[in-house]
UniProtKB/TrEMBL annotation:
PPR repeats lie at residues 177-211, 212-246, 704-738, 911-945. This is PROP1-like PPR domain-containing protein. NCBIfam families: PPR. Keywords: Repeat. Signal peptide: none annotated. It comes from Astatotilapia calliptera. The keyword Repeat applies.
Amino acid sequence: MAALLRSSRLLKFSPSGLLQITCTKRNGPTLGRLYSGALSGRRTGVCARQIGPVTENASRYQASQFDWALTRLDSSVRRTGRITKTLLQRIFHDICRAGSGNQALLLLRSCGSLLPEVPLEERTELAHRVWEKLKELGAQYDVSHYNALLKVYLQNEFKFSPTDFLAKMEAANIQPNRVTYQRLIAAYCQNGDIEGASTILGFMKNKDLPITEAVFSSLVTGHARAGDIESAKNILSVMHGAGIEPGPDTYVSLLNAYAEKGDLENMKKTLEAAESADCSLMDRDIMLVIFTLAKSKHQQHIPEMVERLRHERGYVPDAMNLCLSLITQGQEDTAFHILKTFPTLQSDNSSDSANLGNFFLRHCINMDTSLEKIICFCKELQESNMHTSPLSFTLSCALEAKKTGTAHLMKLFKEEKLPVRPHFFWPLLTQHVKDKNIAGVVEVMKGMQALDVSPDVETLSNYILPVFPSIDAARQALKPSYIHSNSSPKAASVSRKETQSHTLQRLQKNSINAQMARVTDTVANEMYSQDNGSLCMCICVCVCAEATAYFLYNLIDSMSEGQVRAQEDKLRKFFSQLQSKNIMISVNLYRGIRNLLDSCHVPELVKVLNIFPTPQGKVLALENKLAELKAENKPLGLVLKQAIQALSAEENLQRALELKQQHEEEMTAGGYAILINLCCRQNNVEEALNLKREFRKDSSVALDASKYLALVKVLSVNGRMEEAVDILKEMKEKDVPMNDTHMTTLFHALNAVAAGGDIPSIRRLQDTVFTLGLVKPTANLCSPVVTAYLVSKDVSGALEAALECQKRYNHLPRIHDIIVALVEKGETELLQKAMDFVSQERGEMTMLYDLFFAFLQTGRYREARKIIETPGLRAKPGRVQWYAEKCILNNQVEALEQMVDMTAKLFECDRDEMYNYLLRLCKETNNWQKAEAMWTKMQEENVIPRERTLRLLADILKSNGQEVPFEVPELSQPILSLTFPLSLFSCFLPAEAFGMLKEADKKGVALGPSPYDHLIRALLAEGSMDEAMAVKDIAETRVPGFKLTDIASSLLIITQSKKGQVKEALERLKSMLQLDHVPSHLAITRLVQALGSHGNVEGIQDVESLIKSLGTSPNLSSMVFVNNTALAHIKNDDVSSAVELLEGIYTSPDSTNPSMSFVFRKVLEAGNDHAMDKLSAMAERLANHFACYRPASDLFLQLLDMDKVEDAKFMLAVSVCVGKIKNLLSLIPDFAEKELLYPYLMKCHVLDKDLPAAKALHEQMQKEGIVVDELSLKRLAVLYREAGETVPFPEPPEQYARSVYFSMPRPAASLLKPLVCVCVCVCV
């Protein structure tokens, strides 16, 4: 029952998602208020179970895993013509767990030729197992199932008794059909039993069933296998006599008959006959003949057939299936011959072609093909450039399949001078460890010794030591076989490790990461309590020499930046001691360690690390190559760059500079870039700048962004700020592109400066980057400035910097850290200032959460509880998840536990999600006691856990040897359910679900209120109001006191309004309000619009008064009622009342100039010219007499939207142009290009003959210091003369009239044009 509840609670859906628009607020109750972990669906009426974590925007439909598997099976068949046994078994097991016999037909059909990688007998066994199991599960078999089983028998060449098969069908009361008889005939003919086939043929004739080509094709095979090849050939004549033309199937049957005999001559004649009969045989048909030839041991004729392959579209998948079938039948040589015909394998330009033989080699390994053959195949593949590394791939397949004969492959691997790694032996050791087979492990160890392979730490800890009961037992067992060999240095290393039994005991428990984590923890602790000598000794005895690099990486990675800095001296001495032991570190691990140290800003420690020895072979080889090329007077550029790159990887700057000095004339841009980057890494500023100057000689070449940013970082850190800024300017000048990776690099560069607390420098760098436009401001890139203040302990400055970033860039970086610092310092005034600002910019709820997390972080749990218990506060899943993940990452158990406890009564809080966070942390800390306590608390809270939560808790308890107090759900839960409510909402569309509901109601099945409500909402969302009301009636009879929810009621109002049922919709609204339910914003809007379109003025007034009487406002604009009231008047032919109403709105002293575009649009759509004339006159009157330009602007834009351009030009008077330009200036008060805008405004004044306004504008331009252009002066002078006044300035000559516009700055013109083109389209 509990499992049922867990499943059913997640099968929820919401049609409300169909009514939402992006970036709009959602009104009314959401599904999250109804149950924990709400989920909206993309499709109406469908929602799968929610398995993963619920997020704030969790609204996407999730297809069930079972349906996905079936889809994948079908896709695989369509795409490749085959399926894998693993996929088929997975689906079969899912069906068995679901307890359902559905999809039996699909499964049965998949047990035949669709499994070319599976032997015939195994296919048949699988089909029988599917048949019996699904029958137990209640599958109702019909004739199609029996026919599918017959087809599988034929494809698998399974010998059975057709009479017994018919008897079973009769016993099951299943009547055979024509297909059944055809396949029974084929079964007889497959065994050469013509008499039996004739008997079935007689049944068909008696039942007047048609004899098709399939029957004749089977008879061809039957006669041939009976030894009567002539009768088989004569079947074609019989077909002609019966009026049936032989098709490809018949010719293929005859070809196969000859192929079984090895009769190549008659095969050719049959092919010619088919060709002359215009019967085209496809590649797939020829492949069937090739398969028959191979099975019949007539391989000598196969090349003849291969030549007839035309490599049609789809050839490769068909040929792959043929190869797989041949290998399964033991015909590897023929399969390899087919493999070599693959057209893609012969392409030298295909990057993927070199590995297309993988499927062939893998299947050979799986089918236990002899290693001698496989090795021959590998050699030929490599020699013919068909595969780059066939031997390596074959070995990996053999190890993966746990084949015992891999020793020979490894030996050959060794002979080819390829490295044999310890992990190659893991698959061989796995089963021995699982079976506690000490002898098997020792035997594998002997094989490793024979190949001179030493087990590493992971091999010892995970695959060798666990099989032994103790370290002493391991020592005794391994001593004679491996460890006694002191002649080997690696054996001596293992012997040294034997002396450290406590270390081996730790290593034997966990994987390499866990081992290193534990050892790292031990050493990190000892760094604070022991001297460096004991520390170094601890390291040396804990890990072997080849694992030291891994240990070092894990050690540094486990320490915070502060810990690394605090222990810098100890680490430096520690590194020196390791170097004295000549410990070698690989280049990749060296880079990883160096990057970790770089991020901790410890340049002195990096220098110590730089002298660690690394492999020198590559550099030496490249230097020798350089010497050879120089002696031969050949170009050195490429090899020189490679040598510098290798030296850079080893951090050998001195030698790299020497090479550069020796071959300076051969240096390329790439070589300089590598050297510059190396100097930056080693903090060698002067050398980096020298190289940059030399590089700059070629001005046509630019460094990439990463090199530039490395220079910026090293210059900034060393106080060379001017030069760093110059580098940034050069990046802008050379238009160096920046991607996301470079932005991250820039962030680290800025953070490196901020870590030193150099506030002026970081501010200048940040301002330069943003001013130049190298990148767009982000929260990450804004944060280093705040970091600099925090590092300097200047919390006030950090707050001011964050507030400035919000004002300038709309980002509030590191506000959590700032608030935490303010709380810790007790800066109440600054804290209040921060909270006020956050509340104003981001909202009160965001502010409360910021304060809540800060109190949690600082351990002020009482204050945090007060915050989270603020009335009206609701859960914000995204914010809660952020802090929970932060606690998990930083191992803050107490803070997370407190948050879980405090949010117990938080509105819309997903309690299962909260406990899941805490259980994840319990798993990280391996604290099963805490996890068990959480299980008790969940029961106390009556929390219904999701399956993933139960599995997580069970995993914690099991891993600690504790009993699991509940039934652990399977990972893949059954999708198909016989429970009606589940199948109703997870598998069907609303119309189908409605039909099922009616059938269930007839049978007296009663559901809970939730399924009824969900179906009502789904039906209403697609406009099916009658069906929705029918469901409502059923629900009211089955569930006492059933009422529609707010969402359903709002959807009903919307549907009624759309259908014109305004009276019913108004009554529904009133009934909702009487129950203190709040309708949605959309429902009110649609109802008011419907009332307006019906001319119901009183109804609109009623709705308005009802809404105003609500205690909480639905955030509706008052113009919803005004506009629709005006439309209602117009509908009633009372245009004067509409105009009077609208004019009163715009002439009111406190008018906000709201939009009336909706009115204009509806009137224009209705084609009401009388009303349009009145409204246009009103708009013109408001513009000319009241300087109110909003109606005219709305009308103008609506005319343009409806392509009424001429009407728009006629309507738009000059005064309106002036008003609109002034409106633009009011909207953009800080518009910088006023010297471009004012000429347009002057033109409007001149055309309007408004000399006072023109004079005022001229004076304003002079006061603002704006140079009046010649064209404006010319226009103003004309206006003075026309008014009879003296022009008070020199009048420009006439030739300026048309030329001055073109002297305007183009960027400014392009910026202004879209703003003013509407305003002055008539004027200009």
